[in-house]
Amino acid sequence: MAVFTPVSLDDLETWITQFPLGKAIAVRGISSGIENSNFFLTTERGEYVLTLFEKLSFEQLPFYLNLMRHLAERGVLVPAPVANGRGEILHSLHGKPASIVTRLQGSSQMNPQPVHCAAVGAMLARMHLAAEDFPMQQPNLRGLAWWHETVPVVLPYIPDEAKALLRAEIHTQEAFAASHVYHQLPRGPIHADLFRNNVMFDGERLTGFFDFYFAGCDTWLFDVAVTVNDWCIDLDSGRLDPARLRAMLASYHAVRPFTEAEKAGWRTMLQAAALRFWLSRLYDFYLPREAEMLTPHDPTHFERILRERINHPAPALF
Ligand SMILES: Nc1ncnc2c1ncn2[C@@H]1O[C@H](COP(=O)(O)OP(=O)(O)O)[C@@H](O)[C@H]1O
Ligand SMILES: N[C@@H](CCOP(=O)(O)O)C(=O)O
């Protein structure tokens, strides 16, 4: 939507010399960002994305940037942070934290077919496995603790039917999180927001996952459920699309087979993933941040998905 902090070629002339990228040739603001100031940057060495972080701090960013570097080094298709001569990947520009990452080719596939879902499923499984030995720890900051804190904040704003659903679902999720099955679920760093707008395709070829700024350590199954709830549904009804669902899960399973605990927890996890985004959308809708310039996402989309997952349980996992 905006570039909040402008950057010109003049601003980069000296700053860019710390990187092995040659001279900056062009810098162009990306209008679609909502959190940060993003720029397509052309240098003598190629195409990059420059980001000035408007909200995340110098303390918060190392987890995300190091995770991207760790994944890129292991062949997972994600933007690779560019290190300066001192090996640093987090920098400062105009007083804001800043990074340069490699530019992914292509564009987001907003009308995905089974072939796209299969590619996303396989890359997601590769990502989970590649992140297994990532040494940094950060919880999923939009996980159960945040849901617990946020439910009472949004409850006063929503209609009675929605209140009942929200109360019942948070109880379901608290019981699930305390269960034996839940504690057996494999975990590690996850993307946690792998929607269609956070993946690039060049035709049918997946070129990368990006926007890792909700990443954290949580169950792999939660990541799969978040992804399925966006990629494998009919957008109007929230209903699962059997062909896209099969394609995504089969290709994930072929790389990293689902465990028995994951099979047992699958349906509840699809509900958890719907609850997560219903809650954040309710929060942004009823309690917008000061000077928020954006039209908030529609919360009822995820309320519909949650009802759908409860009333028409998904097919069993492989
Ligand atoms: N590494 C990248 N390669 C190519 N395009 C990118 C890359 N990172 C961001 N973009 C582009 O910038 C846009 C905004 O990025 P995003 O991470 O969603 O910003 P914000 O965090 O500000 O919402 C994306 O929709 C995409 O078009
Ligand atoms: N995917 C979330 C919102 C997060 O925004 P993003 O553009 O950073 O992915 C939603 O749809 O509610």
TrEMBL record:
Domain Aminoglycoside phosphotransferase: 27-258
Domain of life: Bacteria
Biological or metabolic pathway of the protein: Amino-acid biosynthesis; L-threonine biosynthesis; L-threonine from L-aspartate: step 4/5
Record keyword Transferase present: yes
GO MF, one annotated term: homoserine kinase activity
Known catalytic reactions: L-homoserine + ATP = O-phospho-L-homoserine + ADP + H(+)
Enzyme class: transferase
Pfam family, one: APH
Name recorded for this polypeptide: Homoserine kinase
Taxonomic source organism: Noviherbaspirillum humi
